[in-house]
Specification:
This protein has about 240 residues and is α+β, with helices and mostly antiparallel strands. Helices cover about 15% and strands about 35% of the residues. The termini are far apart.
């Protein structure tokens, strides 16, 4: 049997020190999971339950460590902003997971950018509409190869530095320890509303000092113990 239209290409991420690939399923994002970012977005930074939104797998752009890729400045926007995030790759599915099960569900970690059409997101928020127009567009999720977890890395990630530079100037700098909801807590809360599946990605939130980039700018994003990615913005 043939498809009536061409089949969409499957998005995959390489796995460090492996010849296997990670097939991207769904991409879940956590909103405002650092207190200081909540403040700059006008929210109360108290420990409100996390909320989630999604990007399509087609939004993902694989980026090799220590190399540079280009993404295009998006259509319909005049405020294109960066958000550096720790990304968690899920190996085991499930619903209503415990903290222990959440930890066991993790395959590994990656460095990601939740690129945002902030002006379109703001318009949607003002009218009480979904955020997809500001979040789920082409090339909005550059993501590094996946670094497989081990006991040492899991301990290191908890306190790892996370940061982003634009044209060599540091814009975002924080630590994973400042997450309002920990990695395992995020997985638990997400599994209470969606049954997780192998191949899912979770973008765990961004620290403060998000900001805009223009065509010609180059972003360098990193998470300590994982590596860094470089992304150039083109016309």
């Amino acid at each position: 049997m043939e498809y009536i239209v061409p089949e969409q290409k499957k998005v995959v991420l390489p796995v460090v020190n492996s010849d296997k690939l990670f097939p991207v399923g769904r991409v879940y994002c956590v909103g405002r999971n650092y207190a200081e970012h909540s403040k700059e977005m006008g929210d109360d930074p108290e420990r409100d339950p996390p909320f989630f939104f999604a990007k399509d797998a087609s939004c993902v752009v694989p980026v090799c460590f220590s190399s540079c890729i280009s993404i295009q400045y998006p259509m319909a926007s005049n405020q294109f902003e960066y958000e550096v995030e720790l990304v968690v790759a899920i190996a085991q599915g499930g619903r209503n997971l415990t903290l222990e099960q959440a930890g066991d569900s993790i395959l590994g970690y990656a460095v990601g950018l939740d690129m945002t059409r902030r002006d379109l997101q703001a318009q949607a928020k003002k009218k009480g509409r979904p955020w997809e127009v500001g979040k789920a567009f082409d090339e909005s999720a550059p993501i590094s190869p996946i670094v497989l977890k081990n006991d040492a890395l899991m301990d290191q990630i908890v306190n790892a530095e996370i940061g982003l530079q634009v044209n060599g100037l540091t814009k975002q700098l924080s630590h994973i320890s400042k997450l309002t909801w920990s990695i395992e807590e995020v997985i638990c809360k997400l599994s209470d509303v969606f049954e997780l599946r192998p191949g899912d990605l979770i973008m765990t939130g961004t620290p403060e000092n998000v900001g805009a980039v223009m065509a010609g700018d180059e972003m360098t994003a990193w998470v300590e113990h994982l590596g860094e990615i470089r992304v150039n913005v083109t016309d």
